[in-house]
Structure formats: C-alpha cells, structure tokens
Specification:
- With 420 residues, the protein is an alpha/beta fold.
- The chain folds into three domains: 13-103, Fumarate Reductase Iron-sulfur Protein, Chain B, domain 2; 177-300, Rossmann fold, CATH 3.40.50; 308-419, 3-Layer(aba) Sandwich (Rossmann fold).
- The chain contains 23 helices and eight strands.
- It has helices spanning 13-24, 36-41, 48-61, 66-73, 80-84, 91-103, 110-122, 126-138, 145-148, 191-195, 198-209, 225-229, 233-252, 263-270, 272-275, 283-292, 296-303, 322-327, 333-340, 361-364, 366-381, 393-400, 410-419; strands at residues 182-187, 212-215, 258-260, 293-295, 315-319, 344-345, 387-390, 407-409.
- The strands form two sheets. It has a four-stranded parallel β-sheet, with helices on both faces. It has a four-stranded parallel β-sheet with strand order 6-5-7-8, with helices on both faces.
- β7 (387-390), α22 (393-400) and β8 form a beta-alpha-beta unit.
- The longest helix is centred in the middle third of the chain and has 20 residues, at 233-252.
Length: 420
C-alpha cells in the first residue's frame, strides 16, 4: 500500500515504522473474517483493513476526527488478524502507533479523558487496586447483581479443595539449599497479584516439585501494557524501565527464565526488546529480559512429561487468551498439559475469537464486550463443563461475570491434580 507521508510527520521514527508496515498490507481482506468487531458490526471501518486505511489517512493528512478515533477505540487489539494475515502485517504495532498519533490530534470529551486517567492511576498499582477491591469484596453481597458479578471472587472446581488464602512464599515445607538446582523469576502482575494471588502460589508449588526455586523482584512494577494500549506511551515506558531495573539484578544472578502467568503481561514483556531497540541505556537489558520471558505453559511443558496414572473425572472447557495464541503465538501447549494431567478437555467452538476482556476494553466498550462475552460463554458452556480455565487474568475475571461455573487459571487446576 503506497503512502505519501505528511511532511510534518516524516521526521518521526514511529511514522517510518508505520509506513513500512502499511506497505506490507495488500488489502486482501482475509483479516475481516477473524475480526470480532467486524463480525458484530459489519462495518468495514471496524475491520483491520478499514482501520489500516484510517491510519493511512492520518499519516497523509496529519489530522483525525473523533468519529475515526471511535473506530480505532473499538478494536480489541486481539491480533487475530495477524494470525491469518498472509503478508505478515504487524497490525498490533501499527494500531498502537496510529492510536498514539490520533490521541494527540483529537480532543476527547472530558468524561472519557478523566475515566482513562483514573484507569492508569489505579489499575497498574496493586496497592491502590487492592484498596478498592477489598471493600468491594466485603460489601459484595449488598451490591446489585450486575455490579457484584464484576467483583473478583475465588472459585474451586468440584472435588478439589480450596487453596488456603494465606500461603507462605515457598509453598511446600522449607527445602535444603541443595534441593534447588535452578531458579526462575515470577512476574506478579498488577490485577492478578491483588485479585487472584493463588495463581502464582500454585505455580510456586509446581516449580518446587521440579527443584526450581521461584523468586520475585522486590516491589515488582507494572509491565506497562495498560498505559501503552491507552496511548500513554511515556508513562508506559516508565513502568517498563522500572520493571527492567527490578528484574535485572536477578537476571545477573542467573535465573533460568522469567515467567508470566498472565499472558497479557507476557506478550508485552516479550516485546520490550523491540520497544527499546533505540534506547542506548535499555536496549541490551530489554532484549535480554524479552529473551528470557516465557509464558508459564512454555515452562511447564518441558517439566511435565506425563500425567497421573488414572484420568481425572473433571470435565473442563479451556479458553485460550488472544494474548497467548495471537500475541505470543503459543498454541496447543496448554491443551497438551491439561490432557497429560488426564483432564477431560471438551471441544469449544470459535476459540480464535476474543472474549471481550482485552485489557480495559470491557470497561471502555461494555456493549461490544458484553456481546462478545455472551457468545464466548455460550460456546464454553455448551457441553456442560464442571469448570472453565484460561491463562490470563483479564479473561478469567471477565468470563466469571457471565457464568456460574468456576473460572480459574489452568495452573491452579494442575497444582491441585498433581500435588493435592
């Protein structure tokens, strides 16, 4: 796709990158078939091809409208279009560049600006988020059902005991130093550390069983994904640099891998090397951090070679997060782990489609997110599973608002099967 860049934008390095991505698009339209918003709305401008065209106009005219920005806002950034694109168009990267440029040229309504500002000042900070979460959980029984469903709670599959609320840092009995031959750094996550802390506790126990010591960075920072996708790139980079600085000493101590149990965080950290490639102070560190980062499934698939001798009775529906299958390009691994554990894994239709969570999307675009959630839960519940599992905190909390089934991270399920 030929683009004539506006002279005022030509000097910007991000614009040169956007132009290169635009030129790789052949406008074939195959992406539309996998785009959730295009399937719901049927509007070409709410498809990847249409949004690419809008970004092209932005780069050529150096101006944008609120109406055009609405079409960019409606994108989930699920990146399903990247999975099917025959030309390898880096749509997610192009969208982030386009949104960032558009944000500076469109004056949003004040209510929207304030709401987005509040999200960036609360969600990436576990302490602040927990201050709001705890009283919400206390008064949850008194709240309207629609609101109460959005407040995280703990779920336990039938036949499995709950993990204790307060688990020690090292989940098993203290082990002698020689027990641990290896160590891995666990990212705590922002929302996950406050809303579902049992996820990492379960992983600690699994790693311990393999002689792997789980370590954490002191006062671990946000990965920066939320701010970055809300076009707050400078703030996002501050979060990213802080996380890199906190992880770096542990990388120097020889951690074997950096593990994320939230695939949305994992895909962002894996892209640090690209985001900081021109930063003289952080390029090397960011590249190393990205190279070491693994989704938890990529780690456990190497450790768990065989499951229990007898099959488990629990029937499970699995939702693969978009950030894992389309962002990190990790597919089929979780399913293999669940099957090795003897779990009856039920077939689910339209696994390529987003559940509607998509970071802050379910908050900023509740109508579209709700329609996608209805469709997703219908597909997950059709064969009457006893539990739903996924690999991203956003998906987990979002799906739980629509179903009465237990919804949990698949790591918790494996921990209960192997170690209970």
């Amino acid at each position: 796709m030929q683009t004539i860049i506006h002279k005022a934008l030509a000097p910007l390095s991000e614009v040169a990158e956007a132009e290169e991505i635009l030129r790789s698009c052949v406008h074939c339209g195959l992406c539309s078939a996998t785009c959730p918003t295009y399937q719901l709305l049927g509007d070409e401008l709410d498809s990847p091809r249409g949004r690419i065209y809008l970004i092209k106009i932005l780069l050529e005219k150096n101006q944008f409208s609120r109406r055009s920005l609405q079409h960019l806002d409606r994108c989930l950034t699920c990146r399903a279009c990247e999975t099917v694109c025959p030309s390898g168009v880096e749509y997610g990267k192009l969208l982030d560049i386009g949104r960032n440029l558009a944000e500076r040229r469109v004056n949003r309504f004040i209510g929207g600006r304030i709401f987005r500002w509040l999200l960036t000042r609360v969600v990436p900070f576990p302490g602040r988020f927990k201050l709001l979460l705890i009283p919400a959980q206390i008064f949850k029984p008194l709240l309207p059902a629609v609101l109460a469903r959005r407040i995280p709670g703990r779920s336990t599959p039938p036949g499995h005991k709950k993990v204790p609320e307060e688990f020690p840092q090292q989940s098993l009995e203290p082990q002698p130093k020689e027990h641990y031959q290896r160590s891995m750094l666990l990212l705590t996550g922002c929302v996950q550390s406050a809303a579902t802390p049992n996820t990492n506790r379960a992983l600690e126990r699994l790693l311990d069983a393999f002689g792997i010591r789980a370590v954490y960075a002191a006062d671990a920072a946000c990965c920066g994904a939320l701010d970055y996708h809300l076009s707050q790139h400078q703030t996002a980079r501050k979060h990213m640099r802080r996380l890199i600085d906190q992880c770096w000493p542990l990388v120097g101590d020889g951690v074997e891998a950096i593990i994320s149990t939230a695939s949305g965080c994992g895909v962002q950290v894996k892209e640090y090397g690209d985001l900081f490639k021109d930063d003289p102070d952080y390029a090397v560190k960011a590249t190393k951090i990205s190279a070491l980062t693994r989704d938890v499934s990529e780690v456990l698939i190497r450790e768990i070679q065989a499951g229990p001798a007898k099959p488990q009775s629990i029937r499970v529906a699995y939702h693969p997060p978009c950030s894992l299958q389309h962002g990190q390009k990790v597919t089929g691994v979780v399913e293999t782990l669940l099957e090795r554990a003897g779990i009856s894994l039920l077939p689910v239709k339209e696994t390529h489609l987003c559940c509607g969570s998509a970071g802050t999307y379910s908050i900023l675009q509740p109508k579209l997110a709700g329609e996608l959630l209805d469709r997703k839960v219908s597909n997950l519940e059709v064969d009457q599973p006893e539990a739903i599992v996924t690999g991203n905190i956003g998906c987990q909390l979002h799906i739980a608002t629509k179903t009465d089934l237990p919804v949990l991270h698949w790591v918790e399920l494996l921990e209960r099967i192997y170690l209970d």
